Amino acid sequence: MSDQEARDLDRAEEYEKMNSRVAVLGQFKFEISSGLIIASRYADKLRRVALVTLGKMIPKDIIMRDIAELNKELYNKIVNELKVNKLDVIRLMVDVEYNPQEKKLQFSNIRIIRYYTEEECKKMGEDLIKENEKLKDELEQAKKKIEEIKNIIQ
């Protein structure tokens, strides 16, 4: 076991005592949640939450292997698709189903929830108001042109 894995297992036990972020959805089916975290820490947090929530029912090597694959997929979504800054606050929620025959975790319904600061919300609101005003002006100009065309036709 590597130092990283040992540290994750120690931290996982610590998390288990503090709080568990899991909902049981059925036999071998769970919903895990990272809680609020900064985006740069999502991989560690998700791995630790998975170890805490699934570690007593599923072999740890399977958890580590499959969560590593999920983290690669999440990196692409968080960094490349959503363009989340590494210091932005996010919450990850994932449905996990364990297939004992294949000895594999299957992930579905992956949700990445991004939280914005009050300043970011105000700026987005101001940008929307500006865009709305611009569209209102364009609409008025289009109405005037339509009236001009109607007058020419009549």
From TrEMBL:
InterPro entries: ThermoDBP-RPs_arc
Pfam families assigned: ThermoDBP-RP_arch
Keywords, ordered alphabetically: Coiled coil
Source species taxonomy: Archaea, Thermoproteota, Thermoprotei, Sulfolobales, Sulfolobaceae
Coiled-coil segments: 118-152
Protein name: DUF2258 domain-containing protein
